[in-house]
């Protein structure tokens, strides 16, 4: 799919959506995914890293011996992270991360890259994450990033997509009434219909995440499929 | 935002990153808050090698902390460890600005959150894309 202005497209179909659904979305996001949890627990004490697209900051509590600077494009989600006591999260765009290059032990970006609406921007996001990681040298492997994206191949999920289906889709977020900020609006007085906010996703097919990482100048250390998602651990090349 | 965090921040503009003046970002009108949190000696001594000491000295001096040693300590004894814990972990900037020394761009800190969105990132129209429909319920 070709989108004329991907940046403007994401403003409408990703950023504003998350701003509106933030509190409802956050209320459904509390359980860390096992592979992410293991990745964070295995890090050495004092490791410093990034959570790019951290949302409400659900990965903060996993390992108290590491230091994570989280960022998200949605000020509302960062506000929620702060109200949960997570003080080290900032509002930033993954394509313009405000971090020094080659400085971090690790990064995670969980369910974020699939919201970029062109192949170039997805690569750019990976490149910008890889740039923050320590470069490998003779004495160390360098920094590592764990990336998760939604898979096209998920025929047993309730979405039911599979190989050969369209990869660029809208996925509705049906707002539960208790979280609806427009409850006082005149439309909702007329009829109390549920609001479905349409989020844009690029669904990754098998092998595509690894190819994007290579194109972004990274090397894949490990990769796999877990619960409707493709994941990869990657790092900068020497 | 912890002082420790500022040691890992720079200008969001790619062009500034290679310029030494962009790091550390400089504080303007900073309002500080102290809290207390448990001292983790192992964390402090392990984080120390990852800290850019001269950037930390600049930031600390700007915020009124002037008793850090000029050279990064090789070993963290309890006195230095506690002092680092107080500055890095227990001191928060709640309001103010972070300014790039290269391009001069100011990033606002409000209620403890720094905002690094550049002007080009700011949206144009206030309405999100919404469908009022029962059809979407099939996905819910």
Automatic annotation (TrEMBL), chain A:
Keyword ATP-binding: no
InterPro entries: AlkB_tRNA_MeTrf/Diox, Methyltransf_11, SAM-dependent_MTases_sf
GO CC term, one of those recorded: nucleus
MF annotations from Gene Ontology: S-adenosylmethionine-dependent methyltransferase activity; tRNA (5-carboxymethyluridine(34)-5-O)-methyltransferase activity; tRNA binding
Domain Methyltransferase type: 50-130
Record's keyword terms, sorted: Methyltransferase, Transferase
Domain of life of the organism encoding this protein: Eukaryota
GO biological process: tRNA methylation; tRNA wobble uridine modification
UniProt cross-references to Gene3D superfamilies, sorted A to Z: Vaccinia Virus protein VP39 (3.40.50.150)
Residues annotated as signal peptide: none
Matches recorded under Pfam families: Methyltransf_11
Protein name from the UniProt record: S-adenosyl-L-methionine-dependent methyltransferase
Naturally occurring in which organism (per UniProt): Tuber magnatum (white Piedmont truffle)
TrEMBL record, chain B:
Gene3D superfamilies listed in its UniProt record: 2.20.25.10
Molecular-function GO term, any one: protein heterodimerization activity
Coiled coil ranges: none
Entry's Gene Ontology BP terms: rRNA (guanine-N7)-methylation; tRNA methylation
Database matches in PANTHER family: MULTIFUNCTIONAL METHYLTRANSFERASE SUBUNIT TRM112-LIKE PROTEIN (PTHR12773:SF0), UPF0315 PROTEIN-RELATED (PTHR12773)
Family label: Belongs to the TRM112 family.
Protein name, UniProt field: Trm112p-domain-containing protein
Native species: Tuber magnatum (white Piedmont truffle)
């Amino acid at each position: 799919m070709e989108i004329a202005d991907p940046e403007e497209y994401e403003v409408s179909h990703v950023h504003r959506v998350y701003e509106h659904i933030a509190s409802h979305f956050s209320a459904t996001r509390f359980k860390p995914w096992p592979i992410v949890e293991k990745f964070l627990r295995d890090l050495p004490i004092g490791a410093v890293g990034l959570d790019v697209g951290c949302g409400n900051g659900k990965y903060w509590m996993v390992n108290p011996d590491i230091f994570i600077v989280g960022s998200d494009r949605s000020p509302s989600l960062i506000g929620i992270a702060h109200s949960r006591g997570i003080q080290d999260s900032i509002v930033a765009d993954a394509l313009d991360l405000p971090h020094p290059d080659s400085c971090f032990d690790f990064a995670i970006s969980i369910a974020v890259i699939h919201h970029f609406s062109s192949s170039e921007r997805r690569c750019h996001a990976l490149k910008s994450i890889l740039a923050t990681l320590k470069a490998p040298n003779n004495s160390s492997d360098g920094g590592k990033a764990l990336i998760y994206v939604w898979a096209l191949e998920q025929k047993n999920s309730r979405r039911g997509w599979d190989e050969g289906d369209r990869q660029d889709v809208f996925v509705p977020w049906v707002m539960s009434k208790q979280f609806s900020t427009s409850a006082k609006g005149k439309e909702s007085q007329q009829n109390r219909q549920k609001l479905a906010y349409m989020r844009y996703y690029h669904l990754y097919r098998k092998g595509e995440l690894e190819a994007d990482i290579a194109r972004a100048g990274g090397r894949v250390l490990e990769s796999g499929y877990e619960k409707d998602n493709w994941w990869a651990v990657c790092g900068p090349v020497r | 935002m912890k002082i420790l965090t500022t040691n890992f921040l720079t200008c969001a503009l790619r062009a500034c990153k290679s310029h030494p003046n962009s790091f550390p970002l400089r504080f303007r009108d900073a309002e500080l808050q102290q809290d207390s949190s448990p001292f983790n000696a192992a964390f402090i001594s392990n984080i120390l090698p990852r800290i850019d000491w001269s950037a930390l000295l600049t930031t600390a001096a700007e915020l009124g902390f002037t008793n850090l040693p000029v050279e990064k300590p090789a070993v963290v004894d309890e006195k230095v460890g506690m002092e680092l814990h107080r500055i890095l972990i227990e001191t928060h900037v709640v309001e103010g600005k972070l300014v790039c020394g290269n391009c001069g761009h100011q990033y606002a800190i409000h209620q403890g959150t720094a905002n690094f969105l550049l002007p080009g990132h700011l949206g144009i129209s206030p309405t999100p894309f919404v469908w009022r429909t029962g059809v979407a319920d099939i996905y819910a």
